[in-house]
Known about the structure:
The complex is a heterodimer. Chain A is an all-alpha fold. Chain A has six helices and no strands. In chain B, 65% of the residues lie in helices and 1% in strands.
Amino acid sequence: xxxxxxxxxxxxxxxxxxxxxxxxxxxxxxxxxxxxxxxxxxxxxxxxxxxxxxxxxxxxxxxxxxxxxxxxxxxxxxxxxxxxxxxxxxxxxxxxxxxxxxxxxxxxxxxxxxxxxxxxxxxxxxxxxxxxxxxxxxxxxxxxxxxxxxxxxxxxxxxxxxxxxxxxxxxxxxxxxxxxxxxxxxxxxxxxxxxxxxxxxxxxxxxx
Amino acid sequence: xxxxxxxxxxxxxxxxxxxxxxxxxxxxxxxxxxxxxxxxxxxxxxxxxxxxxxxxxxxxxxxxxxxxxxxxxxxxxxxxxxxxxxxxxxxxxxxxxxxxxxxxxxxxxxxxxxxxxxxxxxxxxxxxxxxxxxxxxxxxxxxxxxxxxxxxxxxxxxxxxxxxxxxxxxxxxxxxxxxxxxxxxxxxxxxxxxxxxxxxxxxxxxxxxxxxxxxxxxxxxxxxxxxxxxxxxxxxxxxxxxxxxxxxxxxxxxxxxxxxxxxxxxxxxxxxxxxxxxxxxxxxxxxxxxxxxxxxxxxxxxxxxxxxxxxxxxxxxxxxxxxxxxxxxxxxxxxxxxxxxxxxxxxxxxxxxxxxxxxxxxxxxxxxxxxxxxxxxxxxxxxxxxxxxxxxxxxxxxxxxxxxxxxxxxxxxxxxxxxxxxxxxxxxxxxxxxxxxxxxxxxxxxxxxxxxxxxxxxxxxxxxxxxxxxxxxxxxxxxxxxxxxxxxxxxxxxxxxxxxxxxxxxxxxxxxxxxxxxxxxxxxxxxxxxxxxxxxxxxxxxxxxxxxxxxxxxxxxxxxxxxxxxxxxxxxxxxxxxxxxxxxxxxxxxxxxxxxxxxxxxxxxxxxxxxxxxxxxxxxxxxxxxxx
Lengths: 208, 628
């Protein structure tokens, strides 16, 4: 099957993302890349756990005093929902329904932006309290871990937006189907990392 | 399309190499770049040995000595050994599995340029206010307080070149998983490809902790972070953990492909199949797995407690088991073989006892109580040079001789090669054998000078003479390489005993590798075909048809160049008197991300090479009759 083949919903392959050699390589390679990202975040999590609540003598900030579950819950809901909407997008991609895919990707983007806005608000709130990046080892570790996740979200938003704009006029083919698929994989990965951040940083933080 | 084989002008050739995505050209580039940094780091070692030749010497200053030892270690591991092994992996892995190229040719090029520009960035530190001087391990308790920009060069340079290494590692894994020729099952893969696969998997899991460690160092030094500052609640041991979680697997990342190279050389010149192939594969995987379980043996003296020390001591000793399996398999491959002592075989024969010596001292250090005595002494220096020079450098030199005809279609001179081996090998043992005794006598490593009358003078003098002999050996090797330019074309299978697919390709290798994908009928497929009297070289799995190839691209170079420029901005950003640095940082990142978006937006379908064009190219390469 060639990149330039024109498809109808009937001739569109079941797994368009893996119908070409390039697509297959891309999917395998991306899974391996995600394995490497897991180690990256594991290093950050380990550092955060080692430095949690550690600071200069007499530091007032603790996880219990700082974190509020309602905000973290709202962020979690936004991101989890965005993962679900990206599943819908890939469902439509597999059914050769370009419009459906674009719509659900747009909703994913909106939810992701909402998450990012809440995260920026959260950081700004902490900075106003005096919990700045340089304040303590705890602060540095917290902002590095959660900030690296936020940076990944930002990259994911730019990536998906670029894909949507680039392909808006030409629809689906076997060249761009793997691209949409791995972008969705990346988005799920970001979501999984957040589940761990929510548990390790916020839930375990509030419990103490 | 005859332009493929026409002579090009100088500018066109340079442009071709900057934009190339061909794994064979990138292999040559890795080879050249690796040799350059190997020479620089070797020269630094010679300067250090001259300084230590006699007591109270003042050949170099104490500060410069620190820079030399830091740059020697960093360069040798990250910028010499790694790219030289990548040169062999790039050249051989696609050929050995019968692929047209790697899975992601674009990423292959990106990996090279990130590595190379990161390395250049690190070396510019010598001319821009001082090189890093906190040792290649750059422990945070030392490096946080190092004045000047040396450590910043280390952090940013390794971050960039490390990203390149990671990308290349990922690429090799996917290539080996998805691009194997029909019939090439996992258990029919040549052992070098197996070690390349395991080594790439180690890269994949070992480099992210280093990335994070370097990021933390970057935050602490340049943005006022507190990861390692104990007055702010930080903990300097975190750096040590992250560094060694990377650093110990790094040793296996380097030595496993070296094992793989010897596992190709030894069967070829014993003219016997590799003894215990499946146990070799198993041992490779086991070493890779255990390599992640032992990092804290570098930290026995930190004070992690007896439980942690005991666990890591036992795990470390366990690694000797699969390594021993390999050594016995090599010996049993040679046993009863019809042995030809060529230069590569000579290196292999020299490697086995040297590496075993390094391994045995390794097991000695694995016992934590003894390590308290040996820690930070010249015994350690002797140990890891026995492993790295005795294991990796002999592999690189031996396989340079062995695979030179694959790279350049020329043979290296055998007589000069054997002389090189003896000069280098004797020099190596002279340099490092006596350092065991220096260590046991109490000489600490990383000191720039020592007092006379401690019984160290004689051994240090001998060690320096040995180092100079190694230097002469390397120069002889380079002369041999340069002489080969004038040599005669080597042709297909010049050793006459090639076993694996890379020897089955006619020379010079066309840019699409095999004209038709070969059919693999067992382990050592080319040997099987030769035994059955197949004059064609291989049995092929497909008729001659169109070949799909990737396009060249300058984008990898531009992406890397953007990172290179941005690194200068980041480096000078903390200086109050350099407000322009932020614009350089933003500009560099804009180039990088811009190039990435261009890559994303521009379709790159590659091109098809038609049957007639293939036949025309082959007629130009091999004369009438084509691929015979």
